[in-house]
Structure formats: structure tokens, C-alpha cells
Amino acid sequence: MSKNKHEEKLFHLLQDIYFDNIDTAKADEASEAMHNDVRWVHNQVWEHDAHKSNIRDAFNGRKEVREFLHKRIIEMQIEGIIHKVENVVSDGKLGAFKANVIGTDKSKKPFFGLVEIKDDKIIYYRVLPLE
Asked: What is the pTM of this model?
């Protein structure tokens, strides 16, 4: 199944701008996928340290997301995890995706996300683990 232009754009925002920059410790660049007024809600997928999947982090605005990522990226680098998007669906305004967090031992933790797009950026981001 080929992706439509909206799905290609969403995949690019998620994988190329957001997750690839998180995985290479570039919080400022990663946050550029988000709209200035983003509502960002995230349940932990890869449990480590004191971060459990039942804990929800929620932020309003790209600045808050960027500050959170600056702190959390250090821990993700220590864990050695990366993020890979498998599938996306989008109509240009709403979208969903399935992805995996992958550990250094190649183990995978699947998660899914719901997004809303405005001005070619993610204005709503919600992630939940699948397990």
C-alpha cells in the first residue's frame, strides 16, 4: 500500500524530524516537528529508571516539549533506545501511527499515536504503549 502525500508528510514529521532527532540527542531540532501551540501527551513506552507506562506526561506548547526533551534525551541516550515508525495514516488534518521503541538488544516495545496537523506541524500529539 503506497502512502498518500498527507501520510508521507506525517511520516516525515514523525520519523525524520521528531524521532530521528530525539535518537541523535537533538532536542531543539526534534521539537521543530511540533506546532508552537502543541498539546503533547505521552505515556512512557520503554520503562526505565522511574519512568513507568502508567505515568502520563502532558505539555502545552513547543517550548515546554523542547524543555522536556532536553532532560529526557540524556536518559534515552543512556538506555540506547531508538524509535522507528512502521505505519501512518493521515488525511492532512488528523493522523495515527504505529511505531516501536527498539532497545540495544533489538527488543521492541510497540506504541501508537494520534496526531492533529495544523500549518504543516503537529498541534496535537498523543502516544500510548500497545503492551
From this structure: 0.89
Domain ranges of the chain: 5-129
Per-residue pLDDT of the chain (131 residues; tens, 9 = 90+): 457 999 999 999 999 999 999 999 999 999 999 999 999 998 777 554 454 556 778 999 999 999 999 988 888 887 788 999 999 999 999 999 999 999 889 989 899 999 999 999 999 999 988 87
| 5-129: CATH architecture | Roll (3.10)
* Separation CA 107–CA 129 (nearest Å): 14
Decide: 17 and 32 in contact? Cβ < 8 Å.
yes
